[in-house]
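=== Structure Prediction Worksheet ===
Name of assembly: unnamed complex
Input type: mixed (protein and possibly other molecules)
Chain count: three
Listed entries:
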Amino acid sequence: MPLWNIQTPIGAYTADQKKAFAKDITAAYTETVGIPAFYVVVNFREVPEEDFLVGGEPVGNFIRIFVDHVARQLETAELRAWASEEFEKALVPHVKDRGFDWEWHVDETPMDLWRTQGLVPPPAFSDAEKLWAKENRPIPYDVAAS
Amino acid sequence: MPLWNIQTPIGAYTADQKKAFAKDITAAYTETVGIPAFYVVVNFREVPEEDFLVGGEPVGNFIRIFVDHVARQLETAELRAWASEEFEKALVPHVKDRGFDWEWHVDETPMDLWRTQGLVPPPAFSDAEKLWAKENRPIPYDVAAS
Amino acid sequence: MPLWNIQTPIGAYTADQKKAFAKDITAAYTETVGIPAFYVVVNFREVPEEDFLVGGEPVGNFIRIFVDHVARQLETAELRAWASEEFEKALVPHVKDRGFDWEWHVDETPMDLWRTQGLVPPPAFSDAEKLWAKENRPIPYDVAAS
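=== Predicted Assembly ===
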């Protein structure tokens, strides 16, 4: 978590551009809410024009992103607006500035139906989470004490 | 929003058939709840038989659709039943009548974690939304007044 | 429902290994909550390394799974913990024991926005559902009486 699924036209980005895109998305989380970088997973899928339709018409210039959030629930309208602004800031250089149309939405899914590397991830802002963030890997911890 | 993800066998549809399919899905929204046509995004993915398993067995004749709704929440059981009927009507010519098995489900995601072309989409049934629908494109508007 | 979307590196599994994986996932449901086997749909997607990024870095050894649940809502923390354990048990031989890193999460979606083969699936644990499970196919039934 979060899982960013990014649907693009074929060849929209080079491998280096994908990496830069994913780094900016990752930073939008790590530099604000401090989750471990390895929580941020980005999946690109290059979609042939005939498979990518908007309003019933094939499109060749559209980036459609759907995201699942798990580790952080955005509980107020203010937090949601703030997060949306952060996401837009991360997106602009990779979509708008490259001349693409774009749309995104985020879903929030239950925190207790999520595991990474077989472990229950530590609570938000816990010492264990801070350690995971610092080491950037999942580390077994005392779930009962966290 | 809505985002229709349609998983099909390899070669299940021609480009023209995909377009006709996406047009019927689009109409199921624009002709009932009046959202802008460009809100309706359809992504096809052709899945090799070995990657598409039902009950643990590879299948070559199955259409599996998962949908995310954002712009309209279906708040009553009656609305949900009605919408489901509309979707089935749109699907029948493209799945049942072509001899495919099929299954679909819809998730509803938070309206305030969604942006298109960098804009907060206007409220349901607002004048701004009607303008977006008429022009079939996102147009900056006065968010505070809407 | 459930729909398991499994993102893997290219060539992570043979067709036989995918089938064994999907069979174990299917059994995690059919042998515990008794849903029909055909409810369990598994979609694999082999993702090129440049399209699969964790913390902004391309990865070649990671299995990322996202699941939508429809037919059963896990209503208590105990049920969620129990289900998570069942999923881990099903996953271990296919991910951990093969040396992959892995992460999964589950979303729960509305039961009344779901149809299979044009039918409203029968209520959990109903006689109609038991018949669907026994025959492993959707069978028209008296919705009003169920």
